[in-house]
């Protein structure tokens, strides 16, 4: 029963007046009977209600019941707040999706369906980043990376806190040319002069400097022609992550690639993986030092951060080792192919021994000079050399000595050039008297040895 303060006071006054007028105890009925009942309890406070404490107990009843009513009224409001917070969390999740980072031994295939038998549409390499679209805790995870949406085996993905830290380590800043600008000038130094190249709308160039330090209106960038500078007002700087390569992109990359291109690409990936591993190791060392500092009081968050950083350091070190192993294999393949091609060059050149020497000529059958001979031989293998012996010294890579030379290497002298055929010998267009012949490679002082196929 709910009593207001006025009803309680009115009841007390009525009880007192009746007793005074009648001069005798009033017959207790209704409310007054409750006050005279020795065992009557307030259901809210649990106290016995007596004439002496009726006022305070019933007032207390009013206050407590009122508070209870308020709680009942407030409950839907609290639920509404929770729902709003949940909705906000959902929106934040959409804005910042869960990322995963690939950690395969070599690469991770992306399939059209959650099945090994389904079509492979691309690859994730070590430290490539993907957005998780669906992860039910099974073998397969649906991801989006770059242009691709597909399924990958989840055991080769880094997720959670480790993925968040690792994605921070592999991301980089890129400057993107604004759509409305047709071309943006890249300068060799900060200033309006010294334009080294231009980039077109939509092009992306790597940013070299920390953007927090950019205060003068110029951004330092890395281009194929070296370090340059662009005006900050002409580009947008954004985060960029390494992403999956589509099967079409891979085919295009490999279609015209030489074994050297493949080896160079593999080594570039290995170098990047090594840089990430070094950065992760530094992060781990820094995080662990906070936990192990005797003068500090590390928190649970500090301990968790150290644990995550150590795990990421281990993952990135493994990725770097695996990537370097792939690069070493590619290099071995390149060297093997180079040796085979070099031998083919030597064998091809030897068939023209005895043909005439003609100064300024380049015909392997009707007459050629020394640089014309090497130029024409290598042209048969898709290599363009200039018709000038001194210029040919700038091609390929340098070999230290004749002991390290292999068939197909250029043996360069001052004013002459020939092709090494092995066993300390070379074939060359010697002179008008001897024509194309075989001689000792060290018959005169060697200027340099150049390996074209390596």
Structure write-up:
The structure is a single chain. The chain has 454 residues and is of the alpha+beta class. It folds into five domains: 89 residues, no CATH class; 71 residues, Roll (SH3 type barrels); 69 residues, SH3 Domains (SH3 type barrels); 80 residues; 101 residues, Alpha-Beta Complex (endopeptidase fold (from Nostoc punctiforme)). It is 41% helix and 25% strand. A six-stranded antiparallel sheet has the order 18-23-19-20-21-22. It has a five-stranded antiparallel sheet with strand order 6-5-4-1-7. Helix 6 runs antiparallel to helix 7. The radius of gyration is 42 Å and the shape is elongated. The termini are far apart. The N terminus is likely disordered.
């Amino acid at each position: 029963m709910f009593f207001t303060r006025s009803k309680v006071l009115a009841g007390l006054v009525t009880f007192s007046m009746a007793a005074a007028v009648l001069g005798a105890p009033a017959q207790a009925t209704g409310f007054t009977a409750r006050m005279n009942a020795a065992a009557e309890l307030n259901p809210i406070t649990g106290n016995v209600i007596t004439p002496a404490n009726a006022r305070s107990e019933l007032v207390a009843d009013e206050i407590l019941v009122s508070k209870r009513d308020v709680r009942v009224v407030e409950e839907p409001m609290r639920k509404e707040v929770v729902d709003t917070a949940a909705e906000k969390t959902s929106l934040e999740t959409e804005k910042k999706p869960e990322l995963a980072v690939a950690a395969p031994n070599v690469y991770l295939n992306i399939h059209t369906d959650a099945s090994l038998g389904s079509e492979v549409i691309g690859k994730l390499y070590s430290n490539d980043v993907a957005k998780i679209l669906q992860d039910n805790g099974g073998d397969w995870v649906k991801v989006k990376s770059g242009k691709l949406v597909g399924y990958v085996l989840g055991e080769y993905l880094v997720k959670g806190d480790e993925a968040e830290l690792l994605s921070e380590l592999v991301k980089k800043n890129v400057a993107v040319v604004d759509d409305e600008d047709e071309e943006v000038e890249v300068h060799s130094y900060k200033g309006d002069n010294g334009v080294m190249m231009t980039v077109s709308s939509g092009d992306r160039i790597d940013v070299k400097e920390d953007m927090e330090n950019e205060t003068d209106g110029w951004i330092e960038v890395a281009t194929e022609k070296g370090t340059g500078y662009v005006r900050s007002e002409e580009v947008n700087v954004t985060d960029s992550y390494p992403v999956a390569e589509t099967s079409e992109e891979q085919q295009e990359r490999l279609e015209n690639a030489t074994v050297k291109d493949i080896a160079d690409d593999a080594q570039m990936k290995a170098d990047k993986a090594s840089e990430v591993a070094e950065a992760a190791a530094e992060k781990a060392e820094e995080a662990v030092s906070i936990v192990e500092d005797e003068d500090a009081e590390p928190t649970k968050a500090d301990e968790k951060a150290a644990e995550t950083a150590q795990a990421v350091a281990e993952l990135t070190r493994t990725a770097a080792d695996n990537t370097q192993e792939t690069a070493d294999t590619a290099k071995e393949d390149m060297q093997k192919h180079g040796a085979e091609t070099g031998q083919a060059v030597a064998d091809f050149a030897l068939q023209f021994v005895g043909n005439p020497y003609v100064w300024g000529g380049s015909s392997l059958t009707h007459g050629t000079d020394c640089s014309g001979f090497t130029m024409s031989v290598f042209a048969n293998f898709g290599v363009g050399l200039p018709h000038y012996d001194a210029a040919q010294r700038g091609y390929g890579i340098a070999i230290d000595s004749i002991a390290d030379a292999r068939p197909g290497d250029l043996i360069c002298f001052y004013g002459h050039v020939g092709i090494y055929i092995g066993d300390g010998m070379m074939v060359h267009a010697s002179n008008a008297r001897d024509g194309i012949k075989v001689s000792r490679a060290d018959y005169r002082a060697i200027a340099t040895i150049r390996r074209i196929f390596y």
